[in-house]
Amino acid sequence: MTSADFSALRSALADVVAIPVTPFAADGSLDTAAHRALLGRLLDGGVRTLTPNGNTGEFYALTPPERRAVTELTVEEAGGRAAVLVGVGHDVPTAVAAAEHARDAGAEMLMVHQPVHPYVSHDGWTDYHRAIADAVPGLGIVPYVRDPQLSAESLAALGEACPNVIGVKYAVPDTARFAAFARDAGLDRFVWVAGLAELYAVPYFAVGATGFTSGLVNVAPSVSLGMLDALRAGDYPAAMKTWEQIRPFEELRAARQSADNVTVVKEALASLGLCRREVRAPSRILPEDRRAEIAELVAGWSI
Q1: pLDDT tens digit sequence for 217-254
Q2: Cα within 13 Å of Cα(81), Cβ side
Q3: How far apart are CA 218 and CA 37, in angstroms?
Q4: 231 closest CA partner among 190, 200, 257, 270
Q5: Which portions of this protein are annotated as coiled-coil regions (predicted)?
Q6: Cα 16-20-24 angle, rounded to 5 deg
């Protein structure tokens, strides 16, 4: 299969790539009813690409059976209305098993979380992703790049070996580096997704991105999709108006090396009565005196 055969999936990546939260019940288990309702809200709001088991979904805090359950629930709820991009990772056998499960469940794509290992060589990075891509040649593969030291040559080599590697979630906070990396690896070969959400979407679109990931979209789909519309139209002043509106919220998520990244999103959803605020360690819920700040920010948006 050639990269041209993945055109529909490439289009799905050139969009708001939603990273849904994973709601928990009072006893700490998965709250499937709330999860279905949140996914339905995203779909009804116009979201067309869902990423179960992403970082906003607390991937690293879920057990393997929970990750499989989240995948199955998301595919079922999407029901063909959205492309499903399942997060996989950990060691190679675990990632391959998750990839095969995602394929069997009906997902179309995989987002491969960055290898969690203290010693990652450039060639080893390529080998890791190739093992996963080769196991499921019919699925679109999207590496999640967070390492500023990764070479564009490593990604280009992966793309040459694996036609199903179709996009990149680029999450290095350096616009100039992203612009160079994308061009050195293949600006047209891959779909470039701004992996640091709305705050980086504007400058990253200016130099080559055509989609962006979002956790904020859980709270306000119309806000994220409105920014996308402005970016697609090349209306950067309009996109920056949205940027200014959401900046305080996103800065709260990014503070202290993103310690409250998921916590702030779940607190906003809790303020709207959409799910419980609980997160799993090593994240932690906000102290009570800070919760009102989140609710006040969200109240000012058109939701």
Answers
A1: 999 999 999 999 999 999 999 999 999 999 999 999 99
A2: 14
A3: 11
A4: 200
A5: none
A6: 170
